[in-house]
Design a protein that fits this description.
The protein is of the alpha/beta class and 420 residues long. The chain has helices spanning 21-32, 74-83, 116-119, 136-139, 149-153, 159-171, 180-189, 207-221, 266-273, 294-297, 337-352, 375-383, 406-418; strands spanning 13-17, 36-40, 52-55, 60-63, 69-70, 89-92, 95-100, 105-110, 200-203, 225-227, 232-238, 241-247, 251-253, 259-262, 282-291, 304-308, 314-317, 321-326, 360-371, 391-393.
Amino acid sequence: MLTLYSGNKIKRKIYIIGSGLSGLSAAIHSQKKKMNVEIYESAKYPGGRCRSFYDKKTNIEIDNGNHLVFSANKYFKNFCELIGSSKTLKEISPNFFFFDFERNIEWNLDLSSGYTKFLTGKKKLIPNTKLFDYLSLLKLFFVSRNSSVFEIVGNSKIFKTFWEPLTLGVMNTAPHLASAKVLSNVLKETIYRGEKFCRIFQPKINWNESLIKPAVTKIKKNGGLISYGNLLKKIKVSNNNVSELFFVKKKIKVNKHDRVIFSIPPTNLSKLLGNCSLPNQYNTILNLHFKIRPEDIALFQQPIVGFINSITQWVFIKSNHLSVTVSNANDLNSIDTEQLIMNVWGEICKYIKKKITYENVQIVREKKATYVQSPNNINLVKKFKNIPENTMIAGDWTQYNLPCTIEASILSGKKAIETI
């Protein structure tokens, strides 16, 4: 067993509950500090919302969901270096292509020269907009923690074509609820800093090959244990310290020098700790994966396309399928599945101006993908401190200054270890 202190030979073990990206990040950073790691996961696989899997229905491997990662995300890039997966990524120029179904027009929002080019009229504008409309980009620079995005830019002429898709894509929360402060933090790290920080990272194959598989491989190589299908049912707290962990398969006694990291969603944490004032409002992210013929893939000229005034919000063009993402999709949970598929596919055909057929489709609904990132809910997370002394919490939701993203997940795992 690895030791943390060579003098007193105190053997410290880190128990990590959850093998999502935050849990894997905590494990990688634990082992960097020569700590002994054990991960317990309730599912039969690692990765959480960032996993990939072989789908029998479409006969292809698909990502559970799509993620936009920017070159400004330094913790993501550092994590990829740690697990040796940097070469599995591809960079995409920050040219955002959109199609408006209501007006039947398309445009390219080119950020390759920075947002100031819009303010000086040196970049092509969104159709039917004026230079004055882009001054709303400055309004998000200084905002109150209590303001919503809609309160700041809801009257902007580019609200529907810029602010709304940006907010939904980044925060999975409607603009009238979404924290303006969090979106402001994102803008300050990306668009406000220029093209170098706006480039998009995507996996060459899938997120499992770029993040989950190499992380798990490195953890096991360094002596870490990962136990799947092992749900944590309850904990025992003695003298404000977790003393026992009760799993479905085993019971573990936690020694006084050990640490427990809960890398789980707020609802799961509330069930374990009880009496937690944490967010209980969630938003769905809906993903539809359409397998299509290789010759039809060639009809899509751009790697990512945003749709406006439609059900579809983003289309990611993969090597052998199309992956559609709809954020803030609670209203779609009750819609007939076949009708939903037909409507979304109709939008895709209208965009390419050609009727094509898909071979098969798989729908993935993450009904509790992220909590509603409103100022009130963020304040609940910020104030939450009611945990036993020998525990830490990780998860994208814990980083209240950031949206619930891959970057926040990785950072949360790193921060949890830094407190030890």
